[in-house]
Design brief:
single chain; about 600 residues; alpha+beta; Ubiquitin-like (UB roll); Cytidine Deaminase, domain 2; 3 domains; eight-stranded mixed sheet; five-stranded mixed sheet; 28 strands; about 20% strand; globular
Length: about 600
């Protein structure tokens, strides 16, 4: 179809398919009109009130554009629209736009005992409280250690200047390129290109103020891997950001699903493998209205198997986050930057969170949420920080070499005489980087993905004999041809099932998956019904019906994956406990984990 693009230089016709993504439209406009990469955007209305976002999984047809329509190119996007960055057009999160337009003030009523003015006056005892007021934050229940990021921005914009000169800049630990006054490093360096020394300070604010899992069931399934193997596990958290009412201008990361990437693990180590489906999972999650908001990893060691307790490993005498975990958290935060219009490059900090599952003081499984500071992100991004070998609570800032210049990094602490002394960060306590983020579960669980008696197997668990194949699909989608649309939609609403259908060739549904996910997200039965009339859906239904009939005749001979005797890598017999599902690696009459008898 033809789309007309009107700019200050006239009107240009662009030929594009209705199924094309908006990014393709932007690319064609950029090429045909010979435009710069940044500094302009496309709108459906002449006054710029209806933006066509360049990034997104929707199509040109989804955007409401038809053959012959005219769109308008504007060169000055407003503050709520795209932010100009060094690499591509990006957009502020919806929650950030909402909070930036909120004053965040906590209203107070007139105190009849302390206020000596009329009903329309204000005084020190009844005037609204600013969202960054430290005394007020400390009085909250529970007390707030770190103000919200948008409260921090309000604080920058307070005072006589009203934030006229306020800006947020990322720290750089690298030599500025392009200096011609001397030979390049290591032969020369000057004050103009040399990065400044860094004094570590505990960050006053945090980008996320709370982590909320929609329900405990998804986490329980995640922990089942440790229960069955005794090995640690890692996963990515997919969810969304929303307002956190308990903190002024606060943000909550709500988790709806956990994706487990390919990995090899033991009782004290997790090794990541390359994930060929990483981008596909992100695209599918976006179609469901979700995004990658964090990661979760276990550090669990059984304590008393009869009581079901675990060891309390992380406390003030040891560490809360090891140096290696801190560097990993900073790495993921750098991969998922926070979009901010006050920064010159459009990015500042990150909303990505890290959850550690370990034992608490009562030796029960506990969930601790963390972020690391922007200083830590900069040191990790520029390859300046490494862990120490002998103490997990200490990090080490690398020394300069002929290949890399590393600025001096200092921190301050109290000596035995209560004097503040400055030390070089070789080594340094990793606690300077840590920002605690409370993690919790709701009193009333919610389900983006409905709870099922037999949910689809979780990906990358072949060692537990949880195999994602056509049999597992049929187990979830059997009889879909005879079920009503709402029931079929509910059957499909399984994050792990949708990922499998997206990345595998078991059923010919790949081309439908994004549209299916959009229909499932909006509960749009009409759109879903149209998709069920496609050739791909008809073929898939016939395959499921055919294989389902074969399975019905063979179920009497089927054996549950947890009922048969297994062998490990050394061909030693092993068996699965019927009480706690732990896989015992040695012969015995009782379970190593729960202590209950084998039979």
């Amino acid at each position: 179809m033809i789309i007309r693009v009107q700019s200050k230089d006239g009107t240009k016709r662009i030929e594009i398919l209705p199924s094309s993504r908006p990014r393709t439209l932007y690319s064609k406009v950029r090429t045909d009109l010979k435009l710069d990469k940044n500094g302009w955007a496309l709108y459906k209305v002449r006054d710029g009130s209806d933006l066509i976002k360049e990034r997104g999984s929707y199509t040109i047809a989804d955007a409401g554009l038809r053959h012959g329509d005219m769109i308008f190119l504007r060169e000055e996007p407003n503050s709520a629209q795209p932010i100009e960055t060094t690499d591509d057009w990006v957009f502020e999160d919806e929650i950030d736009v909402t909070l930036s337009n909120d004053d965040g003030l906590t209203k107070r009523k007139r105190d009849p005992q302390l206020c000596c003015h009329g009903p329309h006056g204000k005084c020190l005892h009844c005037s609204p409280i600013e969202p960054y007021d430290e005394a007020y934050l400390k009085k909250l229940n529970p007390p707030v250690k770190h103000m919200a990021f948008h409260a921090f921005i309000k604080k920058l914009r307070s005072g006589a200047s009203r934030g006229k000169f306020a800006s947020l800049e990322d720290i750089s630990c690298k030599i500025k390129p392009g200096c011609t006054d001397h030979p390049p490093w290591p032969k020369g360096i000057c004050t103009k290109c040399q990065p400044s020394a860094i004094t570590l300070q505990r960050q006053q604010y945090r980008h996320v103020d709370n982590i909320m899992f929609e329900n405990s069931m998804m986490v329980d399934r995640f922990l089942n891997y440790w229960r069955k193997t005794g090995n640690q596990r890692f996963g990515f958290l997919y969810g969304y950001y929303e307002r956190h009412e308990n903190v002024p201008l606060g943000i909550r990361a709500t988790v709806a699903a956990i994706y487990e990437p390919p990995q090899d693990s033991t009782r004290d180590r997790i090794e990541f493998r390359e994930d060929p489906n990483s981008e596909i999972v992100d695209e599918l999650a976006a179609a469901l209205g979700l995004r990658k908001v964090g990661c979760i990893m276990t550090d669990l060691i059984a304590d008393d198997t009869k009581k079901g307790t675990v060891k309390h490993l992380r406390h003030i005498e040891t560490h809360f986050l090891s140096a290696q975990e801190t560097i990993l958290a900073a790495h993921f935060q750098n991969q998922n930057p926070n979009i901010c219009k006050l920064s010159s490059n459009g990015r500042f900090g990150s909303k990505f969170v890290t959850v550690i599952v370990s034992g608490n003081e009562e030796n029960h499984i506990h969930f601790d949420g963390w972020q690391v500071s922007n200083q830590c992100m900069a040191l990790v991004r520029d390859d300046c920080l490494v862990p120490t070998i002998d103490d997990p609570s200490l990090g080490y800032v690398k020394e300069s070499s002929s290949e890399q210049y590393v600025p001096d990094v200092f921190y301050k602490e109290m000596d035995v005489y209560k004097n503040e002394v400055t030390k070089i960060a070789r080594p340094m306590p990793i606690e300077f980087f840590l920002i605690e983020v409370p993690a919790a579960f709701p009193l009333q669980p919610t389900f983006t993905f409905p709870e099922k008696r037999s949910p689809f197997y979780i990906e990358n668990r072949q060692n537990l004999h949880e195999i994602q194949d056509i049999s597992a699909v049929i187990k979830n989608l059997r009889d879909i041809t005879s079920l009503s649309l709402p029931v079929v939609m509910e059957r499909l609403l399984d994050f792990h099932l949708l990922i499998f259908l997206m990345v595998s060739n078991v059923l010919p549904l790949k081309n439908l998956m994004i549209d299916l996910c959009k229909a499932l997200k909006s509960r749009d039965e009409e759109a879903f019904y149209r998709l069920t009339k496609s050739e791909e859906w008809e073929i898939s239904s016939q395959l499921i019906a055919a294989h389902g009939g074969q399975m019905n005749h063979s179920t009497s001979d089927a054996v549950s994956p947890i009922e048969y005797m297994e062998t490990d890598e050394q061909d030693e017999p092993s068996w699965t406990c019927i009480h706690c599902t732990f896989i015992n690696r040695a012969c015995g009459d009782s379970c190593e984990m729960c202590g209950l008898p084998k039979q």
